[in-house]
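Attaching the record inline, Q. Sequence:
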Amino acid sequence: MPTPSVQTNFVSRTGTSLTFGGQPYRFTGVNAYEAATDWGVNAGCGQMLTDQDLSNLFANSLKSGQVVRFWAFQALATNYTTKQRDWTGIDRVINAASTHGVKVIPALSGESGGCDDNHWKDVSWFSGGYMSVYDNITQWPASTPESFWQYMHEFLNRYSSNPAIAMIELVSEPNPTDSGYVCVNETNARDALRSFYDTVGAEAKKVDPNHLFESGQQGVGQCGQQDQGCTTSSWTSCTSLDYEYVVQSSGVDVASYHDYGADNMAVPGSLAESIPQAAADGKPLVVGELGINAQTNLSGCMTLTDRANNIGAKLSAQLTAGVSGITVWDWIPGALGTTCTTDIAAGDPILPILQLYG
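Structure, as predicted:
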C-alpha cells in the first residue's frame, strides 16, 4: 500500500513508524478529555480548565513534542445558548498547545454519544447513520444540530492546516454494538466498522490531506475486531483476524489500543496481538489510553508512586515492542479527589517519567 508523503510541519508516517520533520517520532503524553469545556460557551464535558490550569498542563506538566488527547465533539463546538457553531473551547486548547510546542489528538465523537448527541453508535450508525442528525440532548443545554458527517467536514476544513494537531480520531472506542456493548454479530460489526473507515476515513483524508487519521480502537477482542476460527490460544492459528481486517482500511493511518485492567502486565496479551496485526497492514499503533487506579494514603489502592513505576515499566516495554505513542488517562485540573482513580493532577510522579520517554 502507498506510504503517505512526508509533510515537514506535520506528523506523518513511514510504514509502521511515525515521523516528524522527516525524523522518527515517538510520543508520550496525557489525555485531558475535558480540556475543551468552556462554561458560558459550550455545555461542557467534565471540569473547565482555567488559564492557570492550561499553563499547568501545557507548560508545566509536559514538554515540547508531547501530546494531549481530548474531546472535540460537536456539542463542544456549539454555543449552548444560540445553538450555533462556536469553536471557542476547541480553539483555546489547540492554541495553547501550539504556544508551548505540544501536539494534540482531537477525537470528534465517542461510542456512547455521551457529552455529545447521546446516540449510541451501533451497526446501523457505522453503516451510514453518521449521515443523520441526532440532536437528542435532554440532560444539559447542549445541541448537535448537524450530522457527524457534516460536523467532520466543518472541523477538518477549519483545522486542516494546523500543525499542532498530531493526528485526528473520528470516533473514540468505536464498537458497533447495541446499547450496553451488546455484540449482536461479530461479522456484521466488523463489516460495518470497515465500511465506516473505507467511506468516512477516505472522505476525511480528501478534505484534510495533512493529518494522519487514527482509528481510536480499543484493540483486538472488541466487537468487530476479534480473532475468529482459532484452533489454539495463539492468534496465529486463527482463520480470521478482524482487527487486522479493519485496520487495513485505507481510511486508517494509525491503529489504536486502550490499556486498562492489566496494571502489572507491561504488555497485555491483547496488545501483543494488536501490534503485529497493525504491522501486517503496514500501520503504526498508538496506545491512546492507558489507565491505572491509584490514590495517596487510601487503603487497598495503589500509591501514586507505585502507579508511576508501573506505568514507567509499561512505557519502556510497549515502546520497545513497537508502539509509536502512549497517552495516559486522565489529566485533570485541580487536585485529586478522595477515591481510587485513574486521574492525574499537576505534580503527579508519572509526569516526569512521561517526559523521559516523550
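The CA atoms of residues 85 and 154 lie 10 Å apart. Residues 1-6 have pLDDT under 50 and may be disordered.

More tomorrow.
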